[in-house]
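Hi everyone,

Forwarding the result from last night's run.
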Amino acid sequence: MSLFTCPICNNPLTRDKHTYRCINGHCYDISKEGYTHLLPVNRKNSKMPGDDKGMANARFAFLSKDYYAPLRQALCCLAVTLCGEAPRVLDTGCGEGYYTSGVYRALLQSGKKPHMAGTDISKFILRLAAKREKAVEFAVASSYHLPIADHSIDFLLNCFSPLALDEFQRVLRTGGYFVYVVPSEKHLWELKEVLYDHPYPNEVKETPYEGFDYVEIRHVEEMITLQRQEDIHALFQMTPYYWKTSKEGGERLATLETLTTRISFDIHVFKKR
């Protein structure tokens, strides 16, 4: 049985080699890469929602070089510590699967038997995720309408993606964990100093959410050095700054062949009441 449910009738889906099906006969093809499409047309905000092909490729290229490995390792440690022997794990807004695959493999290597799924609104980025990790289910879906059964998830991961709290509460079981990753105060500060005349730090705060208890906030911070302009541009392209930077700021960044910058993240860990 799949972790996914039918987006039309909400019944469980079963998976065979080429399709997902529910008892009412609704059928969803599995792409050659290995993901399926569970986002109804009436829930799309645009013709091609989410990251486009260029952004997806930039994210995949950058993360594949392990510049963000410290964050992935921290998430893997949390998952192994907090998950039981056969956890049901969901990565919402999973992107190209860098953290998804890392968590799944860490759980396996610790002797657990995870059943894991990832969702994202971009089909371009899920093509890469499904190629990266064949053992995880992937589906195009909105975080605000997750094709997941009520109270079925033990560990929910959300890295830099929309905060759909009502849905996260719905799909998590009582006692399940919600792990929310956000940029910390000085994330990519040195990059921002190149892009902007007057950069400002990210807001850092502890925000309680109804129905959840705080477990901890884990801080991850390191300096990384990008050795090629190609990597610098890939990092730039996968950030919101790509759309908010002046032409002059982008030109300054394009002249650099190396860049040393801080990566800084806050991992907020919650437990559902």
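The radius of gyration is 19 Å.

Cheers,
N.
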